[in-house]
Design a protein that fits this description.
Bound molecules: ligand LLP
CATH superfamily of the largest domain: Alanine racemase
Function: Specifically catalyzes the decarboxylation of meso-diaminopimelate (meso-DAP) to L-lysine.
Strand content: 25-35%
Helix content: 25-40%
Catalytic activity: meso-2,6-diaminopimelate + H(+) = L-lysine + CO2
Number of domains: 2
Pathway: Amino-acid biosynthesis; L-lysine biosynthesis via DAP pathway; L-lysine from DL-2,6-diaminopimelate: step 1/1
Protein name: Diaminopimelate decarboxylase
CATH architecture of the largest domain: Alpha-Beta Barrel
Keywords: Amino-acid biosynthesis, Decarboxylase, Lyase, Lysine biosynthesis, Pyridoxal phosphate
CATH class of the largest domain: Alpha Beta
CATH topology of the largest domain: TIM Barrel
Distance between the termini: 62 Å
Radius of gyration: 24 Å
Structural class: alpha/beta
Low-confidence stretches: none
Number of strands: 23
Shape: globular
Largest sheet: 9 strands, mixed
Length: about 425
């Protein structure tokens, strides 16, 4: 997929770069990002919305992979940016991302974070709860500013990847419930707060979703709410944000639709529901994270050891693991891999790919079909662009890998590999512990 292919030497090549060369140049483990594929995904979203004729913003959910180089690409591709912490906001600001296109999410934004975002003049706060509503209004007032807000509502549509529960109230830490009247009260409250400008509402139904039905249901619920609010409170929403969650293909089990089909389903649902009610068509915003970067990422490892337990299982161990990709351990997520330096060798054995962390659960792929792996081989694990670097840790004091972006035969470091000095960089031995005993 993307620009990945097997070259004449039988090596995996991404973005015109031979992965065996990348391993030599940058070391392993290494996150490789196919820049052309990221840009292609961004364009698929933007072009699908253009085709709808609606006003829109495609906000890249930077939680999936927040680094300055990604912010630069998002800016160039006319995306907006969803941030959820001061760290993600700082990354965007340092990258020079246009502040008006930054949206700030989260269910517990601290006063410091809100002040930082107000000082930066970001485009929109997605307000999650009543405490935040009052806090944001007060802090904006202190600065003599008016903050644009979307209210996050819980639409009572929950996506379980393959089925949807449409109930009244959902047990969620996020948002104002539509079903129990709290969303209604939140609109009334916002309308009365003088330092807030209500743009509309936001809903997000889940992640790694394949079907369009959940998005259509959410669009219908939000439209119904908008119509009620307009007739009873005389408040009109200018923006409807339907969140992210568009699925990607990690393994053959996953069958996502092309981006264009999700966007068509969403924009059609909005058009139908709002036009039927004679409601001025709102702007539509979405927040894809995983589907923007997930399949553009590949992690390259070196196989260091193996252990054969006859009749039970063969392990091969790589020089990374749950520290650079915690998703298999956390969610039992599935991945596919190839031996990058013999990418067209025939499949010969089924092995379990283990990481190097000191715990048994550190397995990246259980029952991975590979050619006979040899020590020193390079293993490429696909679809690691989203929620991998973003969720990486220093468990066992393992250094985070470097990130390189590849395109047209060129490779460039976007994040340097951590050094051992980075590992101890924030450590301090309190003076009293240094005194001779
Ligand atoms: N908008 C909101 C409000 C969200 O909470 C999320 C994801 C997104 C957008 C982007 O969703 P996406 O398009 O990436 O599915 N760590 C988990 C995923 C957590 C998703 C959290 N929210 C994983 O590795 O699967």
């Amino acid at each position: 997929h993307g620009t990945s292919k097997i070259n004449a030497q039988g090596h995996l090549e991404i973005g015109g770069c031979d992965t065996t060369d990348l391993a030599k140049q940058y070391g392993t483990p290494l996150y490789i990002v196919d820049e052309a594929l990221v840009r292609q995904r961004a364009r698929e979203y933007v072009e699908s919305f253009r085709a709808s004729g609606l006003k829109f913003q495609v906000a890249y959910a930077s939680k999936a992979f927040s680094v300055m180089a990604m912010c630069a690409i998002a800016e160039q591709e006319d995306l907006s940016l969803d941030v959820v912490s001061d760290g993600e906001l700082y990354t965007a600001l340092k990258a020079g991302f246009p502040v008006q296109r930054i949206h700030f999410h989260g269910n517990n934004k601290t006063p410091d974070e809100i002040n930082m975002a107000l000082d930066a003049n970001i485009g929109c706060f997605v307000v999650d709860n009543f405490v935040e509503l009052q806090l944001l209004n007060a802090l904006a007032g202190d600065k003599g500013k008016k903050a644009n807000v979307l209210l996050r509502v819980t639409p009572g549509v929950e996506a379980h990847t393959h089925d949807y529960i449409s109930t009244g109230q959902q047990d969620s830490k996020f948002g104002f419930d539509l079903a129990n009247g709290s969303a209604y009260r939140a609109i009334q409250e916002t309308d009365a707060l003088t330092n807030l400008e209500l743009l509309g509402v936001h809903s997000h139904i889940g992640s790694q979703i394949f079907e369009v039905e959940g998005f259509q249901m959410a669009a219908a619920k939000v439209a119904e709410f908008a119509v009620q609010i307009r007739s009873e409170l005389d408040v009109t929403f200018r923006v409807i944000n339907l969140g992210g969650g568009f699925g990607i293909r990690y393994t053959a089990e996953d069958k996502p639709l092309p981006v264009a089909q999700y966007i068509k389903a969403i924009t059609d649902a909005i058009k139908t529901n709002f036009s039927e009610a004679n409601y001025p068509l709102p702007e539509i915003w979405v927040e894809p994270g995983r589907s923007m970067v997930g399949d553009a990422g590949t992690t390259l490892y070196t196989i260091g050891t193996s252990k054969d337990i006859p009749g039970v299982r063969k392990y091969i161990a790589v020089d990374g693991g749950m520290t650079d990709n915690p998703r298999p351990a956390l969610y039992e997520s599935k991945y596919e891999a190839v031996i990058a330096n013999r990418a067209n060798a025939p499949i010969e054995e089924t092995v379990t790919v283990a990481g190097k962390c000191c715990e048994s659960g550190d397995k990246l792929i259980i029952d991975c079909e590979l050619p006979k792996a040899e020590i020193g081989d390079l293993l490429a694990v696909f679809c690691t662009g989203a929620y991998n670097y973003a969720m990486a840790s220093n468990y066992n004091r393992i250094r985070r890998p470097a990130v390189v972006f590849v395109k047209d035969g060129q490779s460039d470091v976007a994040v340097k590999r951590e050094s051992l000095d980075d590992i101890v960089g924030n450590d301090v031995i309190p003076a009293r512990m240094k005194q001779a005993s």
